[in-house]
Amino acid sequence: MALAAPLSILYRGPLSSCNYACPYCPFAKHTESPAQHQHDAQALTRFTDWVAAQTSALSVLFTPWGEALVRPRYQQAISRLSQLAHLEQVAIQTNLSGRLAWLQDADRSKVGLWATFHPGEVSLERFLGRCSELDALGVRYSVGVVGRKSHFAALAELRSALPAHVYLWVNAFKVGGLGTGPGAGSGYYTAADLAFLNAIDPLFEINTRRYPVRGQRCGAGESAISVDGDGTVRRCHFLQRPLGNLYSGPLEALLQPRPCTRAFCECHIGYVHLPQLQSAEVYGAGLLARIPEGPQWADPAAYLERARQLMSAPQASAAG
Ligand code: SF4
Ligand code: SF4
Predict the structure, then answer these.
(1) What is the pLDDT of residues 67-83, one digit of tens each?
(2) Which residue spans adopt a coiled-coil conformation according to this UniProt entry (predicted)?
(3) Pocket test for ligand 2, best of 236, 269, 274, 310 (most atoms within 8 A of CB)
C-alpha cells in the first residue's frame, strides 16, 4: 500500500470489559468469556500484523469499548507498533489503572496516553502516582475528567497536583444534549461553572458544542479512518456505513474527501478531523492522544475563533 498522505487509524476491537464501573459510562459492560478474549486477541494480532506490513506513514489510536491497557496483549501491541519505522504515533484511551513497566520496551517518543481520571473508581493519590510513573518514563500523556459538577473539586485538585506541562482536558457533560450555541449546556452549567472549567481547560469551549457538520468537508474517510475487529473500515466511529474492509482490496481506493452526512459532531475524536478547525495547529503530533503540542497551543484564541465560525457555517439540509 502506498498512500499519498499520512493516515490515522482509530481501532476499536471487540473487547468491551472494564475494571471500573463509572455511572456515566457510555458503553455497555460485560465480562468476556475465554473465547471472547481469544477472538479479541486474534483481531488485534491481525490488525497489528497488517500495520506492520505497510510502508506508508500511519498513526494509530486505540479507542476500546472498555479498558484495554490492563491486558498484556494491548501493551505488547502498542510496544510493537511504536517500534515500526513507518508508525508515527500510537495512542490509547485508558483509565491508567494498569501496570506501566511495559513501556520501557516501547519507543516512548511515539507513544501517547489519553488518560481519564474517574473519581469514585480510584483515589486521586493512586492516579497521580501513575502520572508520576509516566513522567519518570518520559511518556507523553494528557489527563481528563468528565465535567460533572460533582467532579469539580477533583478537577481543581488535579490541576494543582499535576505538573504544569500536563494538559488537563474536561469533557463537557452533555446531559440532554448541549444545544449548539457557544458554551451551551442545556442550563447544566452556570456562568461561574463555565468560568471555572475554561480556566482549568483552555480548550473546554471547543468541547461544549455540537458542531452542525452535515455537508461540511471532513478528513474522516480521507486522512483518518475507523477500523473494527473484523477489519470493517468506516469514516469514523459515528457513521455506520462501511467504506470497505482493511484486509480485502487496496485501502487507498477507499480514501477520498467527502462531505459529512451526520447532523452533528461533538467528540474530540471526530471534530479534530474537520479541516476548518485546523486542529493540528494546536495539537501537533499529539492530536490522537489529545496532547496539545502544536504551535498554536501557547495561544489557542485563533482555534476558539475557528470553532465559533464553524458554528455559523451554512449547512446542507439533507443527508447524502
Ligand atoms: S473507565 Fe471508561 S470504560 Fe471503564 S467504566 Fe469508566 S468510563 Fe467506562
Ligand atoms: S464530521 Fe464527525 S461525524 Fe462527520 S465524518 Fe467527520 S468525524 Fe465523522
Answers:
(1) 999 999 999 999 999 99
(2) none
(3) 236
Taking alpha carbons only, the member of 219, 210, 306 closest to residue 264 is 210
Q: How far is residue 289's CA from residue 38's CA, in Å, rounded to a whole number?
A: 27
Q: How far is the CA of 319 from the centre of ligand 2 (A)?
A: 12
Euclidean distance between CA atoms 296 and 290, whole angstroms: 14
Beta strand 111-116 pairing with 140-146: parallel
- The reply to whether 316 falls in a domain is no
The CATH number covering residue 158 comes to: 3.20.20
Contacts of 94 (CB under 8 A, 6+ apart): 67, 68, 69, 113, 114, 115, 116
Query: DSSP letter at 114?
Result: E
Q: Is residue 318 assigned to a domain?
A: no
pLDDT in tens, 222-253: 999 999 999 999 999 999 999 999 999 899 99
Confidence of residue 284 (pLDDT cuts 50, 70, 90): very high
Strands 211-212 and 168-171: unpaired
Query: For residue 72, is it within any domain?
Result: yes
Integer-rounded Cα Rg, in Å, for the chain is 19
The CA angle 275-276-282, to the nearest 5 degrees, is 80
Q: Is residue 168 part of a domain?
A: yes
Number of domains in the chain: 1
